[in-house]
């Protein structure tokens, strides 16, 4: 909008009136504040009551440990590294939903951990968790 003043110079004064803009924004804010809680609780449901059931029993995971000397332990029982694939294959055959936890000492050689992971993969175990400590 251009306004002219009654002064001697013919300068045009242009200003934007922001009051209507602020009014509209405040009205929208109030509308959103009122309608937002109504949208989250749109459907009220009363769930039926049933008898409680026992949770599904999940098998305990098997833990494969490698100590600092490079010895393999399967659930705290020492095993030979050459027999690892055969033993894990037998355990997998007995329990198809087997979960294996792999943990090794931080000072163990990488080759020993890599060999264990190859044996785990060849035995068909797909659920493997590598255990670490948080800092």
TrEMBL record:
Transmembrane segments: 20-39
Top-level taxon of origin: Bacteria
InterPro entries xref list: ExbD
Keywords: Cell inner membrane, Cell membrane, Membrane, Protein transport, Transmembrane, Transmembrane helix, Transport
Coiled coil stretches, renumbered: none
Location of this chain's protein in the cell: Cell inner membrane; Cell membrane
GO cellular component: plasma membrane
One GO-annotated biological process of the protein: protein transport
Predominant localisation class: membrane
Topological category with respect to the lipid bilayer: Single-pass type II membrane protein
GO MF term set: transmembrane transporter activity
Pfam families found in the cross-reference section: ExbD (PF02472)
Role description: Involved in the TonB-dependent energy-dependent transport of various receptor-bound substrates.
Family stated for the protein in its record: Belongs to the ExbD/TolR family.
Oligomeric and partner information: The accessory proteins ExbB and ExbD seem to form a complex with TonB.
Name of the protein in its database record: Biopolymer transporter ExbD
Biological source species: Limnobacter thiooxidans
């Amino acid at each position: 909008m251009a306004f002219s003043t009654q002064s001697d110079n013919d300068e045009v004064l242009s200003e934007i009136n922001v009051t209507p803009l602020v009014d509209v924004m405040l009205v929208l804010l109030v509308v959103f504040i009122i309608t937002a809680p109504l949208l989250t609780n749109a459907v009220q449901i009363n769930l039926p009551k049933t008898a409680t059931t026992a949770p599904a029993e999940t098998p305990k995971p098997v833990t494969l440990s490698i100590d600092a000397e490079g010895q393999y332990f399967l659930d705290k029982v020492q095993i030979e590294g050459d027999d690892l694939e055969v033993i894990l294959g037998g355990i997998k055959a007995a329990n198809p939903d087997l979960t294996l936890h792999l943990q090794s000492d931080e000072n163990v050689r990488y080759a020993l951990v890599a060999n264990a992971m190859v044996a785990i993969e060849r035995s068909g175990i797909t659920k493997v968790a590598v255990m670490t400590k948080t800092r």
